[in-house]
Amino acid sequence: xxVDRIRxxxxxxxxxxxxxxxxxxxxxxxxxxxxxxxxxxxxxKLQVERERGITVKAQTASLFYTHHGQQHLLNLIDTPGHVDxxxxxxxxxxxxxxxxxxxxxxxxxxxxxxxxxxxxxxAQLTIIPVINKIxxxxxxxxxxxxxxxxxxxxxxxxxxxxxxxxGTNVENVLQAVVxxxxxxxxxxxxxxxxxxxxSNFDHYRGIVANIAVxxxxxxxxxxxxxxxxxxxxxxxxxxxxxPQEHPTQKLFAGQVGYLIAGMKEVKxxxxxxxxxxxxxxxxxxPGFKPAKAMVFAGMYPVDQSEYPGLxxxxxxxxxxxxxxxxxxxxxxALGAGWRLGFLGLLHMEVFNQRLEQExxxxxxxxxxxxxxxxxxxxxxxxxxxxxxxxxxxxxDDHRVMMKYLFPLNEIxxxxxxxxxxxxxxxxxxxxxxxxxQAADLIKMDILLNGRPVEELTTIVHRARAYSTGKAICExxxxxxxxxxxxxxxxxxxxxxxxxxxxxxxYRKNVLAKCYGGDITRxxxxxxxxxxxxxxxxxxxxxxxxxxxxxxxxxxK
Length: 556
Ligand code: GDP
Ligand code: MG
Known about the structure:
Distance between the termini: 57 Å
Number of helices: 14
Membrane topology: Peripheral membrane protein
GO molecular function: GTP binding; GTPase activity; mitochondrial ribosome binding
Oligomer: single chain
Keywords: GTP-binding, Hydrolase, Membrane, Mitochondrion, Mitochondrion inner membrane, Nucleotide-binding, Protein biosynthesis
Strand order of the largest sheet: 11-10-16-7-8-15-12-13
Bound molecules: guanosine-5'-diphosphate, magnesium ion
Subcellular location: Mitochondrion inner membrane
Largest sheet: 8 strands, antiparallel
Structural class: alpha+beta
């Protein structure tokens, strides 16, 4: 396929502005999927994405589109919108020459619109502004065009007004992709060189790598080498993603597709790696800046016998989500496990859900913490969260963009939810790392019957130790079921107890009801009780439900 008729682009936007819906329309109009009412977020393939209605993983689709009588190959990459997944966005951008910057005609520019714009701008991509949802009663495309001019310095005439839902003007978007975005500068005659920009573990076929071919071509049977490990492989299968896998004989410079080459282990197909022909070595591509974990949590098998299975599940899932960092760890109460680093709380929840749904693994996650550097010696909402205002800019008459410096631990858990509810959903939020700052912090322990629960130890600001300690004790009291003995729940700083709650004793005998009953019924009930216990964790003599660790630190 001639390189000058290839376009690689992705859609970037704030969450819910309609990326996945636009992707559906583009797939329909180019015949990649049939036109029916059933096409809803076709590229959101993961169960977790369908259940939460959000995109977590970037997905690729190759489309064929005829413009002025010439067939073009358009490679579309759908990207996630939430801050926690901006790592996926920057990876997608590295395989593209242009982006569709999608903005909701009613909501206008939001936090992730700005963050994603800068990712594309810094990568020097062509930016096509698209204003979506013009069918809405309150749509105000004029105002959004002024915002785009003000904030991004893009002329309003460049904007395309569409309704992704109804398909209005979506044809103009396809035309703009062909006319405004340059083809990749790939050289077909040079030696083969490809970037691995994503990879997946398939239970039957091993590792499936998504590649962008930067130079030359690759075909079935070729001997290729991955630059990172220097190991050689034979290509078994390759093809386009349309969006389902569509095997082809060759992949050429400028094309994006998938490749299977007998790679079995996670480290063999690292995202950011370079592939080349065995007899024609090339200089490796720069790869990706490693993601910087913001939130850390311990992860443990519910039962230690599940450790090996959980280890391979975590390895395989981190292949698909390379922004998670993994370190081995162990805890007195929970046994051998790992300490995982995530980009945010939603990222952590999604990872956990994917482990359960895609790998059938059941885990205990401890309360997340943020990194601190310790020195040994011993307006609303914003003021409460120790924020310092930095900078402010008017987007238009109604909307202002404010920048604050915040301690990270004040924002990771629930700041976003609170901000949304205080502003009735109007405010949006994004963050980046501003480095470490000095603060008056102390360590607070939580004790169950006098025994410290290390997973619940937190670092708090001195001024808020009492109220936080009291709130955690109250929540623990509500979430730990009564047991056969009384349980004291305490918060302490050093040896000083600062809060206490008591869980009263209660006796539960599952066999009481079937005294003298038949034995199979007894066995059934005992088995049921044992299954219930699997969801519990024993700390000292206290049984704690496994989700307590994370729920207890969320503020109400
Ligand atoms: P994403 O988070 O950017 O992928 O957004 P989605 O494509 O999931 O869309 C978010 C919501 O907006 C869904 O309920 C869509 O049905 C709706 N939506 C998307 N495009 C339009 C549009 O053009 N008009 C209207 N009225 N709703 C739309
Ligand atoms: Mg989406």
